[in-house]
Sequence to fold (1172 residues):
Amino acid sequence: MLKLEKRPQPSRLWTWVTPILAVVITMLAGGALFAALGQDPVEAISTIFWQPLFGEFAFYYRPQLLIKGAPLVLIAIGLSLGFRAGIWNIGAEGQYIVGALAGAGVGLAFYPTESWVIFPLMVLAGAIGGWVWGTIPALLKLKFGTNEILVSLMLVYVAEQLLAAMALGLMKNPEGRGFPGSRNLRQYESAHNAELITGTGMHWGVVAAMIAVILAYVLLSRHILGYHIRLAGQAPKAARFAGVRSARLILFCLGTSGALAGLAGMFEVSGPAGQVSIDFNVGYGFTAIIVAFLGRLHPLGILLAGTLLALTYIGGELAQSNMGLPAAAIQLFQGMLLFFLLAVDVLTNFRVRLSRPEVA
Amino acid sequence: MMILSSIDPVLLLASLMVASTPILLAALGELVVERAGVLNLGVEGMMITGAICGFAMAVNTGSPLVGFIAAAAGGAVLALLFALLTQFALANQVASGLALTLFGLGLSSLLGQGYVGIKPPPTARLDLPILSDLPLVGRVLFSHDLMVYFALALVALVWALLKYTRAGLILRAVGENHEAAHALGYKVVRIRILAILFGGACAGLGGAYLSLVRVPQWTEGMTSGAGWIALALVVFASWKAGRVLLGAWLFGGVSVLQLNLQAAGLAIPVEYLSMSPYLITILVLVIMSADKSRAPASLGRIFHASQ
Amino acid sequence: MTGDLLIVSGLTKAYPGVVANDAVSFVIREGEVHALLGENGAGKSTLVKMIYGLVKPDSGVMTLRGAPYAPPDPHRARTSGVAMVFQHFSLFEAMNVAENVALGMENPPPLRDLAARIRDVSETYGLPLDPHRIVGDLSAGERQRVEIIRCLLQSPRLLIMDEPTSVLTPQEVGILFQTLRKLTAEGVAILYISHKLEEIRALCDHATILRQGRNVGTCVPRDTPARAMAEMMVGSAFAAPARTDREMGAVALEVADLSVAATGQFGTSLRAVTFAVRAGEVLGIGGVAGNGQDELLAALSGEMPVAAGAVRLWGEPIGQMGPAARRVLGLLTAPEERLGHAAAPDMSLTENAILTAAAREHLMHRGFLRWGAAEAFTRRIISAFDVRTPGPSTAARALSGGNLQKFVIGREVLQRPEVLVVNQPTWGVDAAAAAAIRQALLDLAAGGAAVICISQDLDELMEISDRFGALNEGRLSEIQSTHGLSVEAVGLMMGGAHGMEVAHV
Fold:
């Protein structure tokens, strides 16, 4: 019989091994899944993971890694701060949308004026928009004790409706010949989140993501606030004893993750996506949750995990067009990753022992 | 006011019963799970899995009943994965529930590939000789399909079970203090797994009701947050079965009302009306949050029998 | 009444790193009160869990009334006639007495009949209980009654009691003993686990003494002096802390009319608590657990804000200040719960040092942590307080109870507090570590600090305190000097018998 025995202290080795183990197991299970769908598992796995990096058209796909990875990393960094503190922001998708709307709104308001000041203002608006949407659940939690999971989630659905209302109403392109959606921001130079170095896919969002990773690392490992975040999540009573003010922590974590998600949305709508449309949001806010956990809530881990999940998006699209693999299979694959990670994570804190047969 | 008068109150009430059934079923299941001390946020994933399983089986066999059974099974199987994660791998319950939802959404999209745009076999409606023809009451109370009545019966069953039976007592004890229950020799893990499976089956039934009766059609992501509303409902009901029914009627009512207002041509953009169920949910959560003390004391805490 | 009820032979149980029980053998006779004696960590709990079916022995046999006895679970133990009252109650606070009793029984009768039986049995044995009261509202002594009634309703032949008097006032202890004597008169044997020598000498027929997992001897307590039993329990003699006569300074901490509502559904409110501590003084606050100790500590540590003037440090009102601000002013505290409250279990000792010492020991600069300084401070604690650990980066949960407690107390003492408040400082700690901790507290006071020691251990309080008061249901008794204070007087200060009645024998 297998028994679980608590380790005297969390295993450093397993903390780094578990994500890798989870990825390997997911590849195996994913392969089995693809086989069940009638596809060649090896071809499917290599299309998803190998081709975009080293295949024939890798020069095209590698920049996509940055483009798809940036919002994932940016959002996940924000989420990880809250998750570490036991504050569950599940509404990043909504904060992403609102940030995009705020940023795009500012940009569109200035049209057609050209000025260098417009883009920074859009960035600010995006951050504030996301921050507001994230602070709503924080305030309700502080004032009324409402569960932030459910509130932030409900706000996602509200944000989606808001997006539709904007795309079809207030932000609709007057020169769009009746089609839904806003003006394309990529054609509006001052508002365009352009590639900084052509052909690399690196836009301001990528830069922001890198900065976020570095700042989060410094915060968590060297600053007292980062220490308080970790303490609050691990031992809430001890945190209170230490004098951590939970109200501040809640506002900081939810507000910051909201702002970062809002930024991601804003960079996306003014860059790769280009316009405010009904189907603008593709679920980055939820995939970022997987990224956060896969990266063990650690900034460097998140960087790697974000890149990996971006790879699955790109590889998935490739598999869709080359092999006819349904898009939903990739969503399932990503869900499996999280599942297996959680299952394997037990090894960090527990040893598996074969118990000896009991003596009567 | 002209708009309101164009809405038929009898139809409204009747459709309220229908609208509330999916979340009622899902919430009842989650109520039992939470009373046992487990927080399963994967209700949305289990519902949508049930929706596709039920739909697919009903279409394939031509029998909605088979569909519902398949839905319950589908929801339960997904719930089993959650049970394995949280009860054996001791994973964090919040993360596991989210994983379940994401997994369920992906799985259902995949399974539902070939079923978009198909009409399912119709579910029979009750047609009692005299009762169904009564002017007001007939339509509202006596002309529904069997699942509506099943859901109502389930409310009574869950209530009685928790309050009066030994099994219910033990379940509540496990949710109150799993350490003490274990010390007294009760199999905490086994009881929780059974509760989780029950919750999964109920959520599956709720999802199938959406795809087989309420809509009735299969679309990706068709639950649109119903699972999350069901979770909010359990909080609203202070973990009491009777209150779940009231809450389900409230939410069902709001969603039906806003649809009717949309159809009646109310001069507010459709999207803002569509927001209303979610905003109401937030409002309700705020009002009920003050009463945290009623939650089962072991809710969400990991249990590991250390010997 | 002289037949052997339970024969335990060669019972062994090992866990990774420690042998909890090593070939333990002893005999319990029918109708006798048999004590199981030993220090914390001696193996009493594990042995008894094996008898009750919660733990399976690695080797050894048990015989109950001549037949082989190896219960795979508590259900089987109960049906064989073995019942147990745990030290930490297995009660469900939100449910009523009848429901709690039903949960502890194999085949309980319907609740209405059960309620009637509970009333009967509880009256008969002098432990009256209202079956419809919610357990969360009961005092610790009353909760123990629920546990006992639960056992009695199953007509056990052997009743195991694990440290039953740790939550009782002296008067309640007397009533419990009368109940137990009635039971033995009816032929029920009692296995009585304790480390309180005087109680065992008063109550028990035989005693088996465990030390480090082994049976080191059996004796007849009435014929054995307490000193002899203590030496068998502990092995080597150790020095009792030295009390020096001290000069008392000015009033350091003053608590005036402190009244706080209970936190949560099952807490205790504090009512008009008033006292003052001088520099150089040790004030002992006694009382059975659950009478407001945790609330008092929270009010003093700053975790629970109170009226500004209710707590004054050197005359300044600090009632509204949080823990961090109070530490800067020199008021430090150490709560009862080591893992989870005083220390974060999964964090290293260095990280745990930062928990309270960040400001006072300058472990951060403009918010940025100075890990080098933190580690150095942690090493100082480890060496000054003899904390047995591989190093400062070991996780707190890896330490034994005693070592972690030394670390926690040491962390506060090395910060040179002006006022230190500790709650149950030596609870669950082995004798040598406990002595070291008590000495550290005395040394601190000798150095001019004011020390408040909240504890359930009356012996400890009498040893180190200059003055003493007792908390009972949130009220603090009159404070008296410890010189010449009798156990009787102390018991009365702790509030008497909470309305219990004598057994209807």
Summary: Chain A has a mean pLDDT of 88.
